[in-house]
Amino acid sequence: MENRALALAELRQIAQKMRASNLDTIELNGSAWRVRIKCAPQFRPLMPDNLVQTTPDVPPVSLSAPMPGIVLLQHPLNGLPLTKTGDAVEKSALLGMLKVGAVYLPLRSPVGGVITAIQVQQGEVVEYGTEIFVLRDSEITV
Question: Contact 15/36 with Cβ under 8 angstroms?
Answer without folding.
Answer: no
